[in-house]
Write a structure and sequence with these properties.
The complex is a heterotrimer. Chain A has two helices and four strands, in the order E-H-E-E-H-E. Chain A is mainly beta. Chain A has one domain: Alpha-Beta Plaits. By secondary structure, chain B is α/β, with parallel strands linked by helices. Chain B folds into two domains: 191 residues, Thiamin diphosphate (ThDP)-binding fold, Pyr/PP domains (Rossmann fold), CATH 3.40.50; 109 residues, 3-Layer(aba) Sandwich (Rossmann fold). Chain B has 14 helices and 16 strands. Chain C is of the alpha/beta class. An eight-stranded mixed β-sheet of chain C has the order 3-2-4-5-7-6-9-8, with helices on both faces. The mean pLDDT of chain C is 95. Classes of the chains: A mainly beta, B alpha/beta, C alpha/beta. Chains in contact: A-C, B-C. Chains B and C meet through strand 2, helix 2, helix 3, helix 5 and strand 10 of B and strand 3, helix 3, helix 5 and helix 10 of C.
Chain lengths: 76, 387, 292
C-alpha cells in the first residue's frame, strides 16, 4: 500500500525527450506524451498521479534538469 | 605598499642573475612558484626551493612546463602572486598558457633565461632568439609585457618591476633574461624592504551580485577577486562577456580583444623603459637590449673616438615596443644599428618604425656566444657608407 | 501550454534541488539529448549538499570538451581551463589556498590523453582533490574521434574501421598511481554515483570517480548502439557491482560486462601534510608555513 502521494514538475522547454525519467520511474507513473515542445522533443507526463511516490528519481536521472518529483502528502 | 621585511635579503651580495631574479621575486611578494628543471634557468627555482620555507612560500616541481605554467595561474586565483621559470624548450611548452593568462587577465610572471635554439640547441649557451616568440608565441591576438635585464642587479630590480606591472595591468609579464645574464655573477645590492615599492592586487570592494568579472572603467583593467570569497566566479579561456560567461559572437570578441590589446598599447608610454646615451644630436643610434647592450659599449666608444656621432638606446622593456618613440627618433637620425643574438627579430620592429626615415642595419649573431665588439663597430662604421 | 506543468494544480511549486547549484542564466546547456553528463551533475549537486561542504569554499575546475563545460554551468567558483590542464591548475589552486575544496570535473579525453601525465603525478603526490571523470569512451566535442578509453573494435572517426588502439583501464591507472579513493559507476547508477562523489569529496587526498556515460550522438550512433536510453539499459543489464575488485580486472571491452563499485579506499598523507611535516622537522620554528 502506497504511503505517500507525490507529483512531478516538468519544464517542458528544457526537455530533450531522452525518456530516462519514463524508463527508470520505479512505479511506472510517467510516459512520453503525444505533446512536443518548441524544439520538437516529445515530453513526458504523469500518466497516473496516484502511482507517483515523489521519490525524485526522475529528477536525479534527468540530464536536462527538466523534471523533478517530490512528496505532496502522506496517504493513510 | 612596501616589500615584506622578512622576505628581503637586504645587503650587498655577489650572486648570479638567476639567483638575483629569485630574490627579486621574493621581494616582490611572490608566494608560489611552479617550475621544471631546465638549463640555464634551473638556479632560479633551486634558490626558490631553498628560500621559500623561510618566507612562507610554496614551491612545487611540476611534471613539466605545461603544468608549471598553469599551476601558477591556479595559485593566482587563490589570491597569491606567482611565477614560473624556464628556458627555450620549456618556454615553447608554456605558450598556450601565456595565451590563457592573457585572455583571463591573470597577473603572473614568466622568466625565460634564453638559450640558443631551435629545439634543444645549445642548452648552456646564450641567445636572444625568443624575443618574437615572447610577443607572438601563443595563438591569436594579444599583448604582453616583456622586460630584459642586462645584469644580475637588473635581474633583481626588473623582476620586481615584472610583478608590479603584472598586477597593474593584469597581464602575463615575461622576464627575458639570457644565459649570460643568468649565469653572470656580480654585485647585487638589495635595498631595505621599505625602499622597495610593491603593487598590490586590486581586489574589488563590490559585493557578490554587484561585481562583474570583466567590467572596466577608463583604466581598462578589471578589478580582481579570489576564490573562496563567495563571488562564485567563472573564468574561461573562451571569448567571454563582462560576466565572464562564454559568448560566441564576433561582437563580444571584438570588444574583449580590443580591450586586452588597448590596455597595454595605449599605456605603452607609461610602461616604456628605455635608457638613452648621447642620443640627442646623434647620426647613428645603436639599439640594444639584454647582454648585447653591454657588448656594444666598446664598439660605441671606439666609433665615438673615430669622430662619429653615435648614440645608444637600451630597451629594458621590449614589449610593448616603444613604437612612438622610435618613429619620432627615426626622423632625427640617419641610421639605426641593431645587434641581437639572433638572426633578426627586434630589428624588424625598428625597421618598421623607422619607416624609411633612417637606415636600419642588423648585426646578427646565431647565438652560443656574444658578439665580437668589432663586428658591431664595423656595422656602425659602415652603416652610412652602404646606405 | 507546457511552461510548467504539475499534475496537481494546487501543489505549491518546489524547486528542482539541482537549480541552487546551477547558473540558471546559462540554461539550457549544450549537451545532446540522451547525454549522461547532465545526470552526473544532478548526482554531484546532491553529493555536495549531503557532504555539507561550504559551497563558497568549493571550486570546480574543468578542462576542455563536453564535460569540460560543467564548470561553466555550476554556481561555484568555477574554472574552464585549457585542454588537459585542469589538474595542474587545481594543484596550484589547492596549494595556494588549502582551505578550498577542489573538484576537477572533466572528460576521459581531456583527463587521460592530453592530461594523462598530470593525472598520474597529482595522484602520486596525493594532492587533496577529487577528480570526477565522465567517461563516454569517445571525443564528443570534436566529433567522435577515439579516446584512450575507446574499447578495441569500437569505431571513431579517426579509427573508422574500428579501434585497435589499446585503451586505459582508468581505475587501475588511478590505483597504481596512488589515488586514495577509486570508484567506477555508470550514469545508470545515480544513487551510487551520488554516494561515491560524496565519499570522494570527504576523503582526504586524491580521490577519483569514473562515471561511464552515454554519448548517443557520437559513440552510440556510430557504433549502432541505439540512443542514450539504449545505453542506459545496457548499463542496467550489464553492470556487475564488485566492491573491492582488483583494479587490474576491471578493463572495459566493447559492449561487454562493466565492473562497477568502490575499488580503493585507503589513507595516505597528502602532499601538503608531507610538505609541512618534513619542513617542520628540518626547520623547526623557523619554518614559515604558507598561509592560505
Amino acid at each position: 500500500m502506497k504511503k505517500v502521494q507525490g507529483t512531478v514538475v516538468i519544464k517542458a522547454d528544457s526537455c530533450k525527450g531522452c525518456a530516462f525519467c519514463v524508463e527508470f520511474c520505479p512505479t511506472g507513473a510517467l510516459h512520453l506524451s503525444d505533446s512536443y515542445n518548441a524544439k520538437g522533443y516529445r515530453i513526458p507526463e504523469l500518466i497516473d498521479e496516484t502511482k507517483c511516490t515523489g521519490c525524485g528519481l526522475c529528477g536525479l536521472f534527468c540530464p536536462d534538469f527538466a523534471i523533478h518529483g517530490f512528496i505532496i502528502k502522506k496517504v493513510a | 605598499m612596501k616589500a615584506e621585511k622578512n622576505a628581503v635579503l637586504t645587503g650587498a651580495h655577489f650572486i648570479d642573475g638567476d639567483h638575483a631574479a629569485c630574490e627579486g621575486a621574493i621581494a616582490a611578494g611572490c608566494k608560489f612558484v611552479a617550475g621544471y628543471p631546465i638549463t640555464p634557468s634551473t638556479e632560479v627555482i633551486e634558490r626558490i626551493a631553498l628560500r621559500f620555507p623561510l618566507v612562507g612560500g610554496v614551491f612545487i616541481q611540476m611534471e613539466d612546463e605545461i603544468a608549471s605554467s598553469i599551476a601558477i595561474q591556479g595559485a593566482v586565483w587563490a589570491g597569491k602572486k606567482a611565477m614560473t621559470v624556464t628556458s627555450g624548450p620549456g618556454f615553447s611548452l608554456m605558450m598556450e598558457h601565456i595565451g590563457y593568462a592573457a585572455i583571463t587577465e591573470t597577473p603572473c610572471v614568466f622568466i625565460n633565461v634564453q638559450r640558443s635554439g631551435p629545439s634543444t640547441g645549445l642548452p648552456t649557451l646564450p641567445a636572444q632568439a625568443d624575443m618574437m616568440q615572447a610577443r607572438w608565441g601563443s595563438h591569436g591576438d594579444y599583448e604582453v609585457i616583456a622586460i630584459v635585464p642586462n645584469s644580475p642587479q637588473e635581474c633583481f630590480d626588473l623582476t620586481i618591476r615584472a610583478f608590479n606591472l603584472a598586477e597593474e595591468y593584469r597581464v602575463p609579464v615575461l622576464v627575458m633574461m639570457d644565459e649570460c645574464v643568468g649565469h653572470m655573477t656580480e654585485k647585487v645590492v638589495i635595498p631595505e624592504a621599505d625602499q622597495i615599492d610593491i603593487v598590490e592586487r586590486k581586489f574589488t570592494k563590490k559585493p557578490p551580485g554587484e561585481y562583474k568579472m570583466f567590467e572596466t572603467n577608463e583604466s581598462m583593467v578589471p578589478e580582481m577577486i579570489k576564490v573562496g570569497d563567495g563571488y562564485r566566479m567563472h573564468l574561461t579561456g573562451l571569448t567571454h562577456d563582462e560576466r565572464g560567461y562564454p559568448a560566441m559572437s564576433p561582437k563580444v570578441q571584438q570588444k574583449m580583444l580590443r580591450r586586452l590589446v588597448d590596455k597595454i598599447l595605449l599605456n605603452e608610454e607609461k610602461i616604456r623603459h628605455i635608457e638613452e646615451d648621447e642620443v640627442e644630436g646623434a647620426d647613428i643610434v645603436v639599439i640594444s637590449y639584454g647582454i648585447t647592450s653591454r657588448v656594444v659599449l666598446p664598439a660605441i666608444k671606439k666609433a665615438r673616438e673615430d669622430g662619429l656621432k653615435v648614440g645608444h638606446i637600451r630597451l629594458l622593456t621590449v614589449w610593448p615596443f616603444p613604437e612612438a618613440y622610435i618613429r619620432d627618433l627615426a626622423k632625427r637620425v640617419s641610421a639605426f644599428v641593431v645587434p641581437e643574438l639572433n638572426l633578426g627579430q627586434i630589428v624588424h620592429e625598428v625597421e618598421r618604425c623607422a619607416a624609411g626615415h633612417a637606415v636600419t642595419r642588423l648585426v646578427p649573431h646565431a647565438g652560443g656566444a656574444v658578439h665580437e665588439p668589432v663586428d658591431i663597430y664595423d656595422a656602425i662604421k659602415g652603416v652610412l657608407e652602404h646606405a | 501550454m507546457h511552461e510548467q506543468q504539475t499534475a496537481t494544480a494546487e501543489v505549491p511549486e518546489v524547486k528542482n534541488p539541482v537549480e541552487s547549484l546551477l547558473r540558471m542564466d546559462r540554461m539550457p546547456h549544450i549537451w545532446c539529448p540522451g547525454c549522461g553528463i547532465g545526470t552526473t551533475v544532478n548526482c554531484f549537486a546532491r553529493a555536495l549538499e549531503q557532504s555539507k561542504v561550504d559551497l563558497d569554499k568549493t571550486a570546480i575546475v574543468s578542462g576542455i570538451g563536453c564535460t569540460g563545460r560543467v564548470a561553466g554551468y555550476l554556481n561555484l567558483d568555477s574554472f574552464h581551463t585549457t585542454h588537459g590542464r585542469a589538474i595542474p591548475f587545481a594543484t596550484g589552486l589547492k596549494l595556494a589556498n588549502p582551505d578550498l575544496k577542489i573538484v576537477v570535473y572533466s572528460g576521459d579525453g581531456d583527463l587521460f590523453a592530453i592530461g594523462g601525465n598530470h593525472f598520474i603525478h597529482a595522484a602520486r603526490r596525493n594532492v587533496d582533490m577529487t577528480v570526477i571523470c565522465v567517461n563516454n569512451l569517445i571525443y564528443g566535442m570534436t566529433g567522435g574521434q577515439v579516446a584512450p578509453t575507446t574499447p578495441v573494435t569500437a569505431k571513431g572517426t579517426t579509427y573508422p574501421y574500428g579501434s585497435y588502439d589499446p585503451p586505459f583501464n582508468l581505475p587501475f591507472l588511478a590505483d597504481s598511481s596512488g589515488a586514495v579513493y577509486v570508484a567506477r559507476w555508470t550514469v545508470y547508477h545515480v544513487h551510487h554515483v551520488t554516494k561515491a562523489i560524496k565519499e570522494a569529496i570527504l576523503h582526504r587526498g586524491f580521490s577519483f570517480v569514473e562515471i561511464i556515460s552515454p554519448c548517443p550522438t557520437l559513440y552510440s550512433r556510430r557504433n549502432r548502439l541505439g540512443d542514450g536510453l539504449d545505453q542506459m539499459k545496457f548499463y542496467q543489464e550489464n553492470s556487475e557491482i564488485r566492491h573491492g575488485a582488483n583494479t587490474k580486472d576491471v578493463d572495459i571491452d566493447f559492449q561487454k560486462k562493466i565492473i562497477v563499485g568502490k575499488f580503493v579506499e585507503r589513507e595516505r598523507k597528502t602532499y601538503r601534510q608531507l610538505m609541512n611535516e618534513h619542513l617542520t622537522s628540518v626547520f623547526g620554528e623557523q619554518y614559515t608555513k604558507y598561509e592560505g
